[in-house]
Design goal:
The protein is α/β, with parallel strands linked by helices. It is built from 14 helices and 16 strands. The chain is globular.
Length: about 525
């Protein structure tokens, strides 16, 4: 790759820094939650079409997903993607003190990772690559997918099973740093594990049969005000919730490095307090190193749901939200991306950003310091060194750790997982920063923009290196074939696990449009 090509990538990012910053602000302030990212998806689609991409909307049957491509000859097919879902209960303004965004309660959604900057960074790298391809006549195709509901591991298993990643030559998966030591580096051997998410729905369909053997069952009003009410769906949910705690107590101390979290989506649906609650839904997210562990947990949950339903005169049904595979390394493509990162250098926070960080410290009762940002955020760490640090706390048999659904792409295309430091404050002994601090720093331009520009340059530089170095792609694909035992459908390849329709019809939290503007609500709409 020539210096002229490098300069084109860097110049495009520099010249378009203001646009990238503003685009991040748009997505960050939309803060749309999982499966409801309508305006965010439309924004990306508009930008892509304005830049000559052919865009498929609602890809794989998901209303807020898309798949875009730009062709320039017969070279490699290179891909990256955007995520843009926000998290309910994390509404925070771009301020140095705790405050929800104007017009919303703290219970509305907000960007935590932040996915807003994740997607705009990747888009910036993609468009910088396109500029270099046009100027220097580099042949190839650029792909960009819109991936909704990442926090639910939503779209990628569905895109994978529908073949959206099958014909790609290389993928760069970017994510803002969320844990040390994976900061300004790429993953090497230890990739994310499996994740299963599912909903148990309880329905009280025949409350009249709860007391059918009682002598007064034939009264004119079978479910009279003076009689015992059928337990109903709320009781089933409570029993299921309690049983899952037993699962944690029994399995967690022995299995290691796994987690299971639950969310109550809806409950009740009764029209009066003396009628049995008709409907309740409980979602579980299971994060484990292997698919086999996930399946064991689900078996227990199935048994618990069956027992809870029988005890409460209910029927239960199981609905899949996600089945995501563990990750697969590719050293060739990861080394290429890490080399690009070393050339770009880590993000650096200027004096204005430091002033903002110290204002936050002051508002939290802390003193101002000369270097308010985390030291590691301005350093690059070798990926093998980072892996070795993580390995110290893992059982020797464990190959995967933490959870993210970029792992789906790893089984279809050589994939590099890139982490760039987001703005993180320096630690304080015996003090923990509240969540709103990270959320706010992700929405303040002076603090988040250094990460966006660094990531965009790194993604762009990685792509042009792939375009000008065919041997790198060849070696990456040979490694992929070796690790999968023959490529897609090879002897060691894990096929997509998705055997369900997009779970878009559940009672996911959402905004509602009123005459006075947009407001937040917790939906009770079930299908």
């Amino acid at each position: 790759m020539t210096n002229a090509i490098r300069k084109t990538v860097f110049k495009w990012v520099t010249d378009n820094a203001k646009n990238l910053s503003q685009w991040n602000q748009i997505i960050w302030n939309l803060a749309e939650p999982a499966w409801r990212e309508y305006e965010s998806a439309r924004f990306y689609i508009r930008i892509l079409r304005e830049n000559g991409f052919i865009v498929e909307e609602k890809s794989a049957g998901m209303p807020t997903a898309f798949s875009a491509a730009w062709h320039n000859g017969s070279g490699p097919n290179l891909a990256t993607y955007a995520e843009y879902d926000a998290v309910p209960g994390q509404c925070q303004a771009a301020t140095t003190f705790q405050s929800p965004r104007q017009g919303f309660s703290k219970h509305a959604s907000g960007h935590t990772d932040p996915h807003s900057a994740l997607g705009i960074s990747a888009l910036g790298g993609l468009l910088a690559t396109k500029a270099a391809m046009e100027k220097h006549n580099l042949e190839g195709t650029l792909h960009f997918t819109g991936e909704p509901a990442e926090k639910l591991r939503g779209s990628k298993p569905i895109h994978a099973v529908h073949g959206y990643y099958d014909d790609l030559d290389a993928m760069v998966s970017f994510h803002p740093c969320y844990m040390l030591p994976w900061c300004n580096t790429v993953r090497w051997d230890i990739h994310c594990g499996a994740a299963f998410a599912l909903i148990y729905r309880f329905e009280n369909l025949e409350p009249e049969n709860w007391l059918r053997n009682e002598p007064n069952q034939n009264t004119p009003i079978p479910q009279s005000h003076a009689e015992v009410r059928a337990p109903g769906a709320n009781d089933a949910l409570f029993l299921m919730y309690s049983s899952s705690r037993t699962l944690r107590d029994s399995m967690l101390p022995h299995a290691g490095n796994w987690s299971m979290n639950e969310v109550i989506l809806s409950s009740g649906q009764a029209t009066a307090d003396n009628l049995a609650p008709q409907l309740s839904e409980l979602q579980y997210m299971i994060r484990v190193p292997t698919i086999e562990q996930a399946e064991k947990v689900v078996t227990f949950l199935d048994n618990a749901a069956s027992a809870a339903a029988k005890m409460t005169n209910c029927k239960f049904s199981k609905h899949w939200v996600s089945k995501s595979r563990p990750g697969l390394p590719n050293h060739t493509i990861s080394a290429l991306v890490f080399s690009a990162l070393k050339e770009v250098g880590p993000p650096i926070w200027g004096e204005k950003a430091k002033t903002i960080a110290n204002d936050i410290r002051t508002n939290l009762g802390l003193s101002k310091i000369k270097k308010p940002f985390l030291k590691e955020s301005e350093e690059i760490i070798n990926p093998e060194v980072a892996d070795n640090i993580v390995r110290r706390n893992l059982p020797p048999s464990q190959s995967n750790f933490t959870s993210d659904d970029y792992t789906e792409m790893c089984w279809h295309v050589p994939t590099a997982r890139l982490y760039i430091a987001r703005p993180m404050l320096a630690p304080v002994r015996n003090f923990s920063y509240p969540n709103w601090v990270l959320n706010a720093l992700g929405g303040i331009s002076d603090t988040i923009d250094p990460m966006i520009m660094t990531a965009a340059k790194t993604v762009g530089l990685s792509f042009v290196e792939m375009l000008t170095n065919p041997n790198a792609i060849k070696k990456a694909k040979e490694e992929f074939v070796d690790r999968t035992g023959g490529g897609i459908n090879g002897s060691k390849w894990i096929q997509p696990l998705c055997d369900y329709e997009p779970p878009i019809h559940f009672a996911w939290p959402d905004y509602i449009q009123r005459n006075t503007g947009r407001d937040w609500r917790l939906s009770n709409k079930c299908y």
